[in-house]
Amino acid sequence: MTAFIHTLRQADRRMGIVELCSGKTAWGEDFYAYLNVSPSKYEEYKKAHIIGGAVDLTEYGEVLEAGFGSEPTKQVREQMAKKYNIDRKFEEKIQQQISRLWNDKI
User: Fold this and answer.
1) Which domain holds residue 84?
2) Strand residues in 1-106 grouped as ranges (E)
3) Is-contact 32 22, C-beta < 8 A?
4) What are the pLDDT digits (tens) for 40-94?
5) What CA–CA distances, in Å, run from 14 to 19, 37, 39, 95, 102?
6) Cα–Cα distance measured from residue 20 to residue 33, given in angstroms and rounded to the nearest whole number
7) Between the CA of residue 66 and those of 35, 73, 77, 103, what are the distances in Å?
8) How far is CA 1 from the centre of its chain?
9) Which pLDDT value is given to residue 86?
């Protein structure tokens, strides 16, 4: 096991990455779900999300909130943001940090 994977697995016990995802149920109805993705599964989750198709969200983490429709209501978004301190620009910020680190090494 690489040190990186070991670190991610340790992070799984302490934290998660909350993602708002949406899709269609097996019977074709729109849904949304807030998923607390395990850090060690985040890359795998993102790949599955990009590819599309049927996905069992519980393979990647814990479903914190879910409902029907393509987007949660404003009330649900506000409740989730408050309860889980959700930063809607989290992924963008992480990508910026990775880019900075990468550029520092070049």
Assistant:
1) 3-105
2) 17-24, 30-37, 61-68
3) yes
4) 888 889 888 788 778 899 999 999 999 999 999 999 999 999 998 887 777 787 7
5) 17, 12, 10, 22, 26
6) 6
7) 9, 11, 11, 39
8) 24
9) 82
Q: Is the pTM of this model over 0.70?
A: yes
Q: What is the pLDDT of residue 100?
A: 77
List Cα–Cα distances, 54 to 38, 100, 103, in angstroms.
19, 35, 37
Nearest residue to 37 via CA among 67, 64, 75, 66: 64
Q: How many structural domains comprise the chain?
A: 1
- Residue in the structure block whose two tokens are 């599964």: 41
Residue 19's Cβ-count burial label (10 Å; 0-12, 13-18, 19+) is buried
d(CA 75, CA 1): 43
Block residue for tokens 């949660």: 72
- Structure confidence at residue 67 (pLDDT): 96
